[in-house]
Design a protein that fits this description.
Radius of gyration of chain B: 21 Å
Largest interface: A-B, 87 and 96 residues
Strand content of chain B: 5-15%
Number of strands of chain A: 7
Number of helices of chain B: 10
Helix content of chain B: 40-55%
Largest sheet of chain A: 5 strands, mixed
Strand content of chain A: 15-25%
Largest sheet of chain B: 3 strands, parallel
Structural class of chain A: alpha/beta
Helix content of chain A: 25-40%
Distance between the termini of chain A: 15 Å
Shape of chain A: globular
Oligomer: heterodimer
Order of helices and strands of chain A: HEEEEHHEEHE
Number of domains of chain A: 1
Number of strands of chain B: 3
Distance between the termini of chain B: 40 Å
């Protein structure tokens, strides 16, 4: 179980402490409809994509598209980092990319609907490299009438 | 991850996120984050536990109703250590032998990898476009001094790592994920090969090789093995 960095094994904690985090002016949290009326997209930073899509490379701030109907057997991960567990994803993609859980929450009426297309970045991106892609992605999400993005790290 | 929250919300898309490292999220300050105490690589907590995963996802989504961000909510459930009821001792003797080769080891695992695929219906190999014997050959050539481009090597190594760990998950007595990773790094010719390759890459004139050597080949938790492997 991972808690604060101070509670983690030192070798892992020191790796995480060395990661430089960007800082931003606070971004106001936008108001919106109740969750049961929202259309939700998953945005992963696990470096996921369909087998055969371009793998991620160091410094890559772009995203890959994962259509909602993508079979789990087509999903692979090309994140450049080796410092996180991949056996969970190997066992069950939903522990990283909870597409089936989102589908169930829609069926239960907890979430309004799910986007037609979901996306993955590769989280070791330099923020400046990802920002133009994220801006473009926001336009795509609006075209799909998405009004909530669930950001899932790895 | 937190940066994307800023980027998308500023473009008019409301966001909510899972945070695995609270200290990072406290610096980046995305609009909404649910902090979880799960292992890195498992943001939804527990594989093959749909109820648990659904609770985490729902709690993440419910933060959307709040506009008092930047906010970090603490998720109350924790995941304990994976229970280990097995006497895992590499029951099919995959430990390297003096006469063994990487190619033979890869070949011997194929039947277990087939079992794993039959069980889960999928494999996460297939990033490099190489089959496993070819990925092993690429690694062997690199060890012999013929270093391929860093990206090709990285993709082949990641595929092999997935292949080994998926295969091990189908062993008759598979143990915990932690034990299977210790097996990969401590008891296989593949793990040995990566440790032997690291100094060669680190000494390359190609900066991409050096990035691979120093950051993206050996996990931080396994780098202590490097010193032992140096001649």
């Amino acid at each position: 179980m991972v808690k604060r960095l101070a509670d983690m094994p030192e070798v892992e904690a020191s790796h995480l402490r060395r990661i430089e985090c960007p800082t931003y002016e606070d971004t106001p949290a936008l108001p919106g409809k109740p969750l049961a009326e929202r259309r939700v997209a998953l945005i992963s930073t696990a470096g996921l994509h369909r087998r055969g899509d371009r793998p991620f490379r160091p410094g890559d701030g772009s995203y890959r598209v994962i259509p909602a109907q993508t079979p789990a057997s087509d999903l692979v991960m090309s994140h450049i980092s080796v410092n996180f567990d991949r056996t969970g994803f190997q066992q069950d993609h939903n522990v990283v990319f909870p597409i089936d859980r989102l589908r169930e929450l829609v069926a239960e009426g907890v979430v309004g609907s799910m986007a037609a297309v979901h996306y993955s970045f590769m989280g070791a991106f330099p923020p400046d490299a990802a920002e133009p892609h994220a801006r473009h992605l926001a336009g795509l999400l609006k075209q799909d009438a998405v009004d909530a993005a669930l950001l899932v790290p790895v | 991850m937190g940066a994307l929250g800023h980027f998308l919300e500023r473009q008019g898309i409301p966001t909510t996120s899972i945070s695995l490292v609270r200290e990072h999220t406290e610096i980046v300050r995305p609009p909404r984050a649910l902090w979880v105490t799960f292992e890195l690589g498992r943001p939804l907590g527990i594989p093959d536990d749909p109820d648990f995963q659904r609770r985490v996802l729902r709690a993440t989504g419910e933060l959307l109703e709040r506009t008092d961000g930047p906010l970090i909510a603490d998720y109350p459930e924790e995941v304990g250590e994976e229970a280990d009821f097995t006497g895992w001792a590499c029951p099919i003797n995959l430990a390297p032998q003096a006469t063994d080769t990487l190619a033979a080891e890869i070949d011997r695992l194929a039947t277990w990898h087939d079992q794993a695929v039959a069980k889960t219906g999928r494999t996460t190999t297939g990033v490099s476009g190489l089959d496993m014997p070819a990925a092993g050959q690429l690694l062997s050539r690199a060890l012999a001094g013929d270093l391929p481009p860093a990206q090709a090597l990285k993709e082949a190594v990641d595929d092999l790592r997935a292949y080994y760990l998926e295969a091990a998950s189908a062993f008759p007595d598979p143990g915990t994920a932690r034990k299977r990773k210790a097996w990969l790094w401590g008891d296989t010719l593949f793990g040995r090969a990566l440790l032997d390759l690291q100094p060669r890459l680190a000494g390359s004139d190609d900066p991409q090789h050096r990035i691979l050597a120093n950051l993206t080949l050996i996990p931080a938790t396994e780098r202590h093995r490097l010193a032992k492997s140096q001649p």
